[in-house]
Design a protein that fits this description.
Shape: globular
Radius of gyration: 21 Å
Distance between the termini: 59 Å
Order of helices and strands: EEEEHHHEHHEEHEEEEEHHHEEEEHHH
Strand content: 15-25%
Low-confidence stretches: none
Strand order of the largest sheet: 4-3-2-1-5
Helix content: 25-40%
Number of strands: 16
Length: 410
């Protein structure tokens, strides 16, 4: 159990222990404890050279971005029914294990004992049931609270010599049949089309997807380098959880490209961003929102677009906007392609997708990008025909959805 009230947390940044302090009174306050302007930043928009003390009425976006939500938040509630669950409590649960390089700890409180590591091979042989996954969550919650998103997921350590969990485990969802295999095939097609994605593996029963974290670099002797990570919502200064979650669906892919350009990322990153947007469109992923794109960095002078993650063909599922409401089909993009109040979220024409590539992202031959993606999608569907982990009805649904997207390649 955590204290009833948490007013202060020590903040580490990568290998720098106690780099700062987060305080909560009537407002939030973050203080760098070192006046060195070249020290690691707590956020790209919060450098120490501009101010050693930052204040805000809400939790700072680089910290807010990883707070658990959806399924994981509800499981925290179930496991700690009498525990206050403020953002400060959630950060204490995140500890040093959240995505990115920020860590949080309570003064004078011993760290929880590390749970046993579980290998990827063991996880792949685990037969999924809701009860089994709930046991995983209960066992590894202390290492996995720092991962956001609505889908059931948890982080687990796969080797005792690495002090932080390095695997993300996503589970099946009764509301979305075949979700794990769906994402596995999407990411497999992306990798085949030379789009950077995390290392992925699908369990033997096709119900659990395992991803290696992309915000860690493993060096010799299991030395871990933690990279900074901020999603686009955080870089735009937005909080998008709970009642504000609709914010992550506001805006356009054009505005994201412009933000990446303002950050002065190398032009290769805009080409990669175009690949990610085009791929999401072609596999009919209607949930590529502001939190599903991000930037990795070591410093403001050394940053790059993160690999693509959380990609699912959403158009094959039905959903309701509210409990008891009518079932709807996902037939639109998460964001507008182009900025402007008269633009829509409708899937674009091939000409519009070419225009976005050339004019917004500076891609000289967007048609070639689309051709490469279509070839990879087609080959992935062919390869999946012999994969017993992929149900035939799911594969048929993906085939129909992807056919519409592959038409962009001519």
């Amino acid at each position: 159990m955590l204290p009833e009230k948490i007013r202060a947390l020590s903040v580490s940044i990568g290998d720098v222990e106690q780099a700062g302090q987060l305080l909560k009174t009537s407002n939030y306050e973050f203080r760098y404890l070192d006046s060195n302007p070249e020290q690691p930043v707590v956020g790209l928009l919060m450098p120490p050279r501009e101010s050693l003390t930052w204040r805000d009425g809400d939790l700072f976006p680089p910290m807010d971005q990883n707070l658990p939500e959806g399924d994981l938040f509800m499981k925290i509630r179930e496991l700690f029914p009498k525990q206050p669950i403020t953002p400060m409590h959630l950060l204490a649960l995140v500890g040093r294990n959240g995505i990115g390089r920020l860590g949080y700890s309570l003064a004078d409180r011993a760290e929880a004992a590390a749970p046993r590591s579980i290998s990827k091979a063991e996880l792949l042989k685990t037969r999924y049931t809701p009860e089994v996954f709930n046991e995983l969550v209960a066992a590894y919650l202390s290492t996995g609270a720092g991962i956001a998103g609505m889908q059931p997921k948890i982080m687990v350590p796969d080797r005792p010599t690495v002090p932080i969990p390095s695997l993300i485990v996503k589970a099946a969802s009764p509301a979305y049949p075949g979700l794990a295999a769906n994402e596995f095939l999407c990411l497999s097609a992306a990798r085949s089309s030379v789009i950077s994605v995390p290392e992925i593996a699908l369990s033997d029963d096709g119900q659990i997807l395992i991803l290696d974290r992309f915000d860690m670099v493993m060096h010799d002797h299991d030395r871990v380098e933690r990279l900074g990570f901020e999603d686009i919502a955080a870089l735009a200064g937005l909080r998008v959880r709970d009642v504000l979650s609709d914010r992550k669906y506001q805006g356009s892919y054009q505005r994201i490209a412009e933000l990446l350009r303002q950050l002065q990322l190398h032009s290769d990153n805009l080409h990669r961003f175009y690949q990610q947007v085009a791929f999401s469109i072609m596999v009919r992923n209607g949930d590529a929102h502001l939190k599903n794109f991000g930037v990795l960095y070591r410093s403001a002078a050394d940053m790059w677009l993160s690999p693509m993650f959380d990609v699912v063909t959403t158009s094959i599922y039905k959903y309701t906007r509210y409990q008891g409401g009518p079932e709807l089909e996902d037939r639109t993009l998460a964001l507008k392609l182009f900025a402007g109040k008269h633009q829509t979220r409708a899937y674009p024409s091939t000409e519009e997708l070419h225009d976005f590539g050339r004019r917004i992202c500076g891609v000289s031959q967007p048609a070639r990008v689309l051709e490469g993606i279509a070839q990879a999608m087609h080959q992935t569907l062919e390869d999946a025909k012999g994969d017993a982990r992929v149900p035939a009805p799911l594969l048929a649904q993906l085939h129909d959805a992807w056919e519409a997207g592959m038409q962009h390649a001519g």
